[in-house]
Amino acid sequence: MRPVVGSILHLRRLLVSNVWLLDGGPGDRWLVDCGHWAERATLALELRAAGLGPRDLTGVLLTHRHSDHAGNARWLQSQGVKIHAHRADAEVLDGTRPRGLLERGEGSRLAGFLARFENRWPVRLTVDRALDDGDAIAGLEVHWVPGHTEGSVFYRHATTRALLSGDTLLAAVPPLTIEQRLALPYPTFCVDLAQALASLRAFHRSGFDYAHLLAGHGRPVLGDARARAEALLAAEGLG
Question: Do 43 and 57 meet the contact criterion of CB atoms below 8 Å apart?
Fold first, then answer.
């Protein structure tokens, strides 16, 4: 586990997707996302290395419902950890809202395989608290940015000027995420790409400030993240 900015730490041994710990001390420790179920042992190892167990966590805040980000939510919930997600994703997770399926489209064969995997084995659970746009929790602002999933969100940490962006703004290029650079949402993995891009553009047009990007995939982007994101949007005709 590695400090990133302020009280935010990166569980760096997890490889499928990024998991972040907001460590405000006992009674105020939150995971943002919780990784894929295949890395459950690694997640537990990372927590133990910090002297923590699941019961030391105050809660989990999901950026979205996909299994590489929410795959350990049900297990953590069984350990007494409260799970939080935007209302639209919460309704998909518990089955009260239809699940938008992923299609390969113009993506690679690997992306198509991962999409089929997600469609076949989605995360299912009842969240403990459904979040709405504009809510505040764990020192974070909740910004609804639908399109990647029905209830994708940004969490903005005004104190450190960090933006935890899930997969609506990436710091590595899917589907392998080996190439480290800012990237737009990947079409194959979005239930509505046009909506995801519109959400991303609207957020940046709103003027919300941030300096550091902690994305769902890729290394932290520190210091000039908003300027780099705006340059990307402009280059893609979304400025």
Answer: no
DSSP code for 133: T
* Helix, strand, coil fractions of the chain, as percent rounded to 5: 30, 20, 50
Q: What is the DSSP string of 9-21?
A: EE-TT--SS--EE
Q: What is the enclosing helix (H) or strand (E) of 205? A: helix 193-205
Angle at 128 between CA 126 and CA 91, to 5 degrees: 45
Q: Is 161 helix (H, G, I), strand (E, B) or coil?
A: coil
Reported as a single tens digit per residue, the pLDDT across 46-77 is 999 999 999 999 999 999 999 999 999 999 99
Compute the half-sphere exposure of residue 237: CA atoms within 13 Å on the CB side of its CA: 1
Assigned token pair, 17: 């997707």
Third-level CATH fold of 2-235: Metallo-beta-lactamase; Chain A (3.60.15)
Q: Checking phi first, is residue 25 left (phi over 0); if not, alpha (psi -120 to 50) or beta?
A: left
What does the pLDDT look like over 1-50, one tens digit per residue? 999 999 999 999 999 999 999 999 999 999 999 999 999 999 999 999 99
Please give the Cα distance from 63 to 61 (Å, whole number): 7
Does the pTM of the predicted model rise above 0.85?
yes
**Chain Cα centroid distance, residue 86:** 11
pLDDT at 190 over 90: yes
Q: What is the per-residue burial (b if ≥16 Cβ within 10 Å, else e) of 100-130?
A: eebbbeebeeebbebbeebeeebbebebeeb
- Residue spans of the domains in the chain: they are 2-235
